[in-house]
C-alpha cells in the first residue's frame, strides 16, 4: 500500500527482482496505479478536516504562550509550555494513553454543551504543588494519595488559568469555562461513547528541572456547533464586525457611567524654597494670571474649556464660557 514502510529485507528483494528481470518498473507503476483503495477504520472516524486541525493547533499554541506566562508568575520559576501534537482519536484510545492514576480536571465551556478534560501528568501536578507550597518543585508523583487541601490548591491554580483559555478562544467564540469535577482515575470518566471522536491537544511542559505532559481532550460533540468557524476562511476575515444595536446600547450606558478627573487651574506661580518653607495661613501667592482672565479647565491632563470663577449655593464653582480646540486630542 502507498505509505507503507518497507523493511531492509523487502527492499533488497525488490531490487533483486528488478535486476533479474522478474519484475519491471512499468509493472510496478501499473500495480501502484490500480491500487488506489485505502482501508478506512470506522472506529477511528476522522470528523475534523486538516484545515480545522490547523485552526485548533493555532488556538492552543496561543493558549500555551498564555499559560507559560501565567504559570511562571504563579510558580515563581522557569516554565516553558508548547504544543507537542494535535490528534483526533476515539475516546477510548485517549483513556488508554493516559496513566491509571492522574489528575483529571473536567470543566464545562458554556455556551458550548458538554465537558472538556484537562489531564495533568502526576509529575507535573506535584511539581506545581511543591512550588506553590514553597518547595523546589519535587514531589512523589502519585495523585492517588492527594489530600483535600492539596486537591483544593491545584484546583484553584487551574481554575484561574481558565482566563487564558477564554482569551485563546475569543477569536472563535466567547466561552465561560468553569471547573465542574476533579478525578484521579480515568475509569470513572463516562462522559461520552468510547468510539466518539475527540481532539487531543498534547502540551510539553517544563517546570524548573521537572517535565511532563498536559493533555486537553475535546469531544467532537462539544465543537460541532462551531466547526464552520474553524476554517481558514473564517480566520482570514479582516473586516471588523459592526456592533449590534444591543451592543451599542450597552456600550453607551457604560460610557455614560465612566468617570474622568476634571481640574481647574487658577494659575501658576514661582517662589524660592525658603519662602515656601515659611508659608503661613493668610499669605498671598502671586500668580501669572490676572483676576479677570478666564481659568483653564482640564479633563484628565488635557485642556478642554475656559471658565470663570464664582459661587453656587455657597460653594466655589466655575462657569464654562468657551471650548478649546487643540489638535487630535479633541477627538479623545
From TrEMBL:
<dbReference type="Pfam" id="PF01052">
    <property type="entry name" value="FliMN_C"/>
</dbReference>
<dbReference type="GO" id="GO:0005886">
    <property type="term" value="C:plasma membrane"/>
</dbReference>
<dbReference type="InterPro" id="IPR001689">
    <property type="entry name" value="Flag_FliM"/>
</dbReference>
<keyword id="KW-1003">Cell membrane</keyword>
<feature type="domain" description="Flagellar motor switch protein FliN-like C-terminal">
    <location>
        <begin position="254"/>
        <end position="324"/>
    </location>
</feature>
<protein>
    <recommendedName>
        <fullName>Flagellar motor switch protein FliM</fullName>
    </recommendedName>
</protein>
<keyword id="KW-0283">Flagellar rotation</keyword>
<dbReference type="InterPro" id="IPR028976">
    <property type="entry name" value="CheC-like_sf"/>
</dbReference>
<dbReference type="GO" id="GO:0050918">
    <property type="term" value="P:positive chemotaxis"/>
</dbReference>
<dbReference type="GO" id="GO:0003774">
    <property type="term" value="F:cytoskeletal motor activity"/>
</dbReference>
<keyword id="KW-0145">Chemotaxis</keyword>
<keyword id="KW-0966">Cell projection</keyword>
<dbReference type="InterPro" id="IPR036429">
    <property type="entry name" value="SpoA-like_sf"/>
</dbReference>
<keyword id="KW-0282">Flagellum</keyword>
<keyword id="KW-0472">Membrane</keyword>
<keyword id="KW-0975">Bacterial flagellum</keyword>
<dbReference type="Pfam" id="PF02154">
    <property type="entry name" value="FliM"/>
</dbReference>
<dbReference type="GO" id="GO:0071978">
    <property type="term" value="P:bacterial-type flagellum-dependent swarming motility"/>
</dbReference>
<dbReference type="InterPro" id="IPR001543">
    <property type="entry name" value="FliN-like_C"/>
</dbReference>
<dbReference type="GO" id="GO:0009425">
    <property type="term" value="C:bacterial-type flagellum basal body"/>
</dbReference>
<comment type="similarity">
    <text>Belongs to the FliM family.</text>
</comment>
<keyword id="KW-0969">Cilium</keyword>
Amino acid at each position: 500500500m502507498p505509505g507503507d514502510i518497507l523493511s531492509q529485507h523487502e527492499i533488497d528483494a525488490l531490487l533483486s527482482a528488478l535486476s533479474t528481470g522478474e519484475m519491471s518498473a512499468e509493472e510496478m507503476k501499473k500495480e501502484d496505479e490500480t491500487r488506489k483503495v485505502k482501508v478506512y477504520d470506522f472506529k477511528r472516524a476522522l470528523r475534523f478536516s486538516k484545515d480545522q486541525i490547523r485552526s485548533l493547533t493555532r488556538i492552543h499554541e496561543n493558549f500555551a504562550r498564555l499559560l507559560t506566562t501565567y504559570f511562571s508568575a504563579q510558580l515563581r520559576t522557569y516554565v516553558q509550555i508548547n504544543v507537542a501534537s494535535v490528534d483526533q482519536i476515539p475516546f477510548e484510545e485517549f483513556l488508554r494513553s493516559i496513566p491509571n492514576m492522574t489528575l483529571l480536571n473536567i470543566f464545562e465551556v458554556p455556551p458550548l454543551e458538554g465537558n472538556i478534560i484537562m489531564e495533568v501528568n502526576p509529575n507535573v501536578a506535584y511539581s506545581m504543588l511543591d512550588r506553590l507550597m514553597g518547595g523546589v518543585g519535587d514531589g512523589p508523583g502519585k495523585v492517588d494519595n492527594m489530600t483535600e487541601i492539596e486537591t483544593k490548591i491545584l484546583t484553584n491554580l487551574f481554575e484561574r488559568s481558565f482566563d487564558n483559555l477564554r482569551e485563546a478562544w475569543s477569536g472563535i467564540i466567547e466561552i465561560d469555562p468553569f471547573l465542574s469535577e476533579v478525578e484521579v482515575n480515568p475509569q470513572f470518566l463516562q462522559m461520552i461513547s468510547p468510539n466518539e471522536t475527540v481532539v487531543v491537544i498534547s502540551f510539553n511542559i517544563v517546570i524548573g528541572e521537572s517535565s511532563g505532559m498536559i493533555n486537553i481532550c475535546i469531544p467532537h460533540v462539544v465543537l460541532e456547533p462551531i466547526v464552520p468557524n474553524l476554517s481558514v476562511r473564517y480566520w482570514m476575515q479582516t473586516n471588523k464586525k459592526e456592533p449590534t444595536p444591543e451592543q451599542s446600547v450597552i456600550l453607551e450606558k457604560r460610557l455614560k457611567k465612566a468617570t474622568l478627573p476634571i481640574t481647574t487651574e487658577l494659575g501658576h506661580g514661582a517662589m524660592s524654597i525658603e519662602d515656601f518653607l515659611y508659608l503661613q495661613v493668610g499669605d498671598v501667592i502671586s500668580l501669572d494670571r490676572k483676576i479677570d482672565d478666564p481659568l483653564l479647565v482640564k479633563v484628565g491632563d488635557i485642556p478642554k474649556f475656559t471658565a470663570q470663577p464664582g459661587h453656587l449655593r455657597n460653594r466655589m464653582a466655575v462657569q464654562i464660557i468657551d471650548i478649546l480646540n487643540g489638535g487630535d486630542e479633541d477627538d479623545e
